[in-house]
Amino acid sequence: MTNPKFAGHDICLETKRLILRPFELSDFEIALPYYQDPEFKEAMEGTPDRFIDLNMLERIGECMARQGYLFAVVQKATNRVIGEVCLEWMNLSRAKVAPGEKVMRTPLGIWDKSLWGKGYGKEMLECIMQYAFETMTIDRLCAMDISKKNVRSRRLFESCGYRLVRTLANDGAMDFEIEFKDAVYTAHTK
Q: pTM of the full predicted structure?
């Protein structure tokens, strides 16, 4: 069993090929080389020039863990941590959360670029959507600040039913959303 102290939860989710488990401090050391790769950073956050060290990565992860549920994504076939996904309570005013509405963000990433385009992103996103909508009874999920250059992420969220709700004027980043009533998942979860 993993140590839920860092992530602040002990939720484990499973799909056919993946296990989503509480993120651990040791996972940051695995993630760091990927966050120092310009192509990965541009896909994740649109800022390939910003230097990220272990301390910064841990601070970002701590913030995400405090604001929601941070998961490490483990590939079952290799028992290797290949990425991350988070269910984070909405904290951006532009999402316009109505009183009583439960809204979360769904940032995610597959660290190993050799695994991009193999359906892992969709599998983990659908798993987290199903958990958020059916177990947590979330009203709406959002994917925020998707770089206009990140065609893969845009297609991923659209393929899972998210719709474009706004494009930011300053850098063209896009926000996507999906409501519970619009959610459809394939049979990825166990």
A: 0.88
Residue 8, domain member (yes or no) = no
Alpha carbons 44 and 37: distance in angstroms, whole number: 11
**What is the Cα gyration radius of the chain?**
16
Q: Note whether residue 90 is domain-resident.
A: yes
User: Per-residue pLDDT tens for 48-87?
Assistant: 566 778 888 888 888 888 899 999 999 999 999 999 999 9
Question: Into how many domains does the chain fold?
Answer: 1
**CA 161, CA 11: separation in Å to the nearest integer?**
25
Cβ neighbours for 174, distance < 8 A, ≥ 6 positions apart: 145, 146, 147, 148, 154, 164, 166, 167, 168
CA-to-CA distance for 39 and 127, rounded, in angstroms? 26
Contact 163, 177 (CB under 8 A): yes
